[in-house]
Automatic annotation (TrEMBL):
Assigned protein family: Belongs to the AIR carboxylase family. Class I subfamily.
Residues involved in substrate binding: 3, 6, 33
Spans through the membrane: none
Domain of life: Bacteria
Protein name in UniProt: N5-carboxyaminoimidazole ribonucleotide mutase
InterPro entries for this protein: PurE_ClassI, PurE_dom, PurE_prokaryotes
Organism: Sphingomonas gilva
Coiled-coil boundaries: none
Entries under SUPFAM superfamilies matching the protein: N5-CAIR mutase (phosphoribosylaminoimidazole carboxylase, PurE)
HAMAP family reported in the protein's UniProt record: PurE_classI
Key word Magnesium present: no
UniProt GO molecular function: 5-(carboxyamino)imidazole ribonucleotide mutase activity; lyase activity
Higher taxonomy: Bacteria, Pseudomonadati, Pseudomonadota, Alphaproteobacteria, Sphingomonadales
Top-rank EC class of the record's enzyme: isomerase
UniProt keyword annotations, A-Z: Isomerase, Lyase, Purine biosynthesis
Gene: purE
Amino acid sequence: MGSTSDWETMRHAAEILETLDVAHETRVVSAHRTPQRLYDYASGAVERGLVAIIAGAGGAAHLPGMAASMTRLPVLGVPVESKALKGMDSLLSIVQMPAGIPVGTLAIGRAGAVNAGLLAAAIAATADPALGERLQAWRDAQTEGVATEPE
Ligand code: RP5
């Protein structure tokens, strides 16, 4: 994430990964304030054995696109809700990537963070059948938990 202030949103991605027992790490890496940290993290990601990167940022949210420019790993972008423009700035600056450098863009805020975690798990599950079973069980439980009528 681009700032510790993004953690309130991005913790939802970490929580779903914990729930599904997916190994993960959390880092603050700012495209603007710590460009060298971003370069080191993204360019070394394949070598370190990472499978996907979830990049959450708000405002002029260059982090996911810059990360994607430096790794062939799937990059999932989460637009963090900004104070001034409610995350529309984050969304548009993440989603409008030019052809050639893809960023899989999720919804603004908590929903996007949760779904980024689920999508990262689904990506990892393509090479991990046991994780696939855990993900399916999570989805089945979610379905079971939907009430047939309001209380
Ligand atoms: C972005 O600027 C971060 O991703 C964050 O969403 C936003 C504000 O950062 P702070 O000023 O709260 O550190 O780079």
